[in-house]
Design goal:
Layout (H helix, E strand, L loop, with lengths): L1 H21 L1 H25 L6 H13 L9 H19 L5 H25 L4 H26 L3 E3 L3 E5 H21 L11 H29 L14 H22 L1
Length: 267
Amino acid sequence: MLGQRLATAAIGGPLLLALVVIGGVPLVVVTALAAAYGSHELRAMLRRAGYAPSGLVMIPLSAALPLLAWDGWAALEPLVLGLAVVCTLALALARGGRWSAPDWAFTLAGPLLVGGLLRLLVALRLRSDGLWWLLAVVLGTWISDTAAYTAGRLFGRHLLAPTISPKKTVEGLVGSLVATPLALVLLALLVPVVGVRSPMSAPAALGAGLLLALAATLGDLAESLIKRQCGVKDSGAVFPGHGGLLDRVDSLLFAGVAGYGVALVVR
């Protein structure tokens, strides 16, 4: 299992960083495909729990939201969301009592969780200083997860949320809160060397790192809650040794919200 995890990380990590650097159409298209597949995984988990959200709405809507971040397409977003609501409630009417309120509610909420939050990563990269911000979010999330895992394995004694994720520890969270801000400070200091302008000073990067670490931890716990309530261990098996797509991006989804919010304030 460890070998599979290392092999997957060795291949996936550089590919993800290359996609961040390239940006543009490749990033938008891959993010839309990831949103569609993540929504598929979420629907499968919900079905395991006895719900019946509509894939006809969930998957296309989740894929559409990152695409709508592209220049000139944002004006279509209210129309797309409106059509999704109309189609969902039309399906509810057509199915009558066979489709419960949670079913159509999950049909709309699922794409907002997956596609809506992934959309923020695309919007972040499309900024003039977007390369730095998306690197900060992606690398910060990776550092946060790695530091939390390492500190938890070495020093973990106190459970952080035992009813939700029995392996998360307070010591792991502390490790994340220490390592992530330091990583963002290093990024702010080093990227000018390779020609990428940093929009933040070192002290500001320190604060942003704390927010990213907290957001990443919250995202991890949120997906653990969903999996526990659906009675599944992993969201899928697309990544050998790592589980499903949602298992890999859960921290990133919430960290993207924090990163986008900080970017708006800094501007």
